[in-house]
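hey so i finaly got around to running the thing on Pyridine nucleotide-disulfide oxidoreductase from Dissulfuribacter thermophilus. pasting the sequence first so u can double check i didnt mess up the copy paste, my clipboard has been acting weird all day
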Amino acid sequence: MKIVVIGAVAAGPKAACRARRLLPDAEITLIDQDDLISYGGCGIPYYVSGDVSDEKELRSTSFHMVRDNRFFEEAKGLNVRTLTRAISINRKNKTVLVENVKSGEKEELPYDKLVIATGSRPNVLPIPGVDLKGVFTISSLHKAIAIKEMISKGEVERAVVIGGGAIGLEMAEALTDLWGIDTTLIEFMPQILPNIVPPYMAKMLQTHMEENGVKIFTGEGAQEIVGDDSGRVQKVITPKRELKADLVIMAAGVRPRGELAKEAGLQCSSYGAICVNQRMQTSDPDIYAAGDCVETLNLITGKKTYAPLGSVANRQGRVVADNLAGIPSTFDGVVGSFIMKAFDVAIGSTGLSLEVARKEGFDAVQSIAAMADRAHFFPTQAMMFMNLVVDKSTKRVLGLQGFGKMGDGVLARINAVAGLLGKRPLISDISTLELAYAPPFSNAVDVLNTAGNIADNLVSGRLEIVEIEEFCSWMDGKTEHSDWIALDLRHTKEAAPWVERYSDKWMSIPYDQVRSRTAEVPRDKTIILICNAGTRSYEIQRYLRSQGFERLMVLPGGLNVIRRIKPSWWIA
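ok and heres what it spat out for the 3d tokens, dont ask me to read them lol
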């Protein structure tokens, strides 16, 4: 059997190498237009930052062999053709026309089975100046090497990153943390990580990055990139400001490289992704496709989606190889899982955010759990935040977002829910989910279980909350709610500065005194119950309701959330 694989970064090498193990007699050819292949593209920001010292580490195996032509030929038994561009596919004759990038020499490669793994390309903003020297997209390892070379030569004092997604944020951290570059990030949407995490969690991340030296401006995009007489970048212009820059990185997302498939008459989506079935076959049963160039199924919405991730590409590549070898195997789809680090914190998501869930037609609400990531008495405990998104009418769990100290804590909870989402779990599945417990690792009632319990109270009508954004708008005077008052349930000493500064909005009755001082609670106002995490507030809400109070709302996540947002009205 002649197998030709086009693309040698993630899905392509995975499919080719597993096919070789399953089909020892097959003739397998792996081609790519680049000379650097099989590298961890998601590791590029860490190479730029210096966490990964040598680019070869991104191309090396766990046993320190560089994945180059020689490795794939001698260790894996593949025919490797780098610097070879696939120009067209002749499905009738079952050949691929290829061209040597350097010599221009063309050749036809016959195939019995073809695998397309052409990946994605970065979006280039349609604005003046994108072709100036010093303006980069993160499209290949070559670009990363060029960026690091500029920095190491001392040519970069100021940088602008365009795009507040994961890659943009990681690159902003990389430039600031090790190199001390004056770095600014701009994001067109109102928040960073739009449609991935809720606004309050995005603001928590933004505040943390700003505290570590990254300037972030949301709600404004780049209008123009301006250069000097030599064609080198000088500044980025937005509707609100001009930002000086020696380096500009465009991190405005990616789109699939599906042109080769489309020109061959294969079915593609409206945005250019190759359509495949669960066996990763295209509309031609002898041609498979995998990785960033294909569309897949969202297991929560049941709709087609695009998931350009190295982890997804590798799993799809394995499915391709199985089917090439006659082993029935399927890739059913994704729930959409993500995690990243930013200085000292981790933030992650799986499934749908509240905003996306509502756009998809779900009757969605979110529960916010804020508590220690391990037993509160353990000396290294730190706050962790879990945001569980559920459908109110069916109690189906739709997604989870997490924020906490850098480490594996957030990852563990995200992964636990990610493994359930495709099976349509209910809130009760999260509340009762069995998780390993020991004080150095978690609470006896884990923060994830707590998020489920809060969601159950919320959808059952036992808990009524005020939205964090609405509360902040009231506190800073943007929203008028003259009939509101905050009831601070913390210790009197903790509450005192707030009562003093916001005497018209804030009153204090400690949690353990509310029952004896119920008469002091005003009945003619809407009471916003406030504590550090929301737990005491919920308990007091239940008690006051039993006493005939009706206008009661809990601030979810309590002041543990607010102090990490640090709004203008915050008292340190």
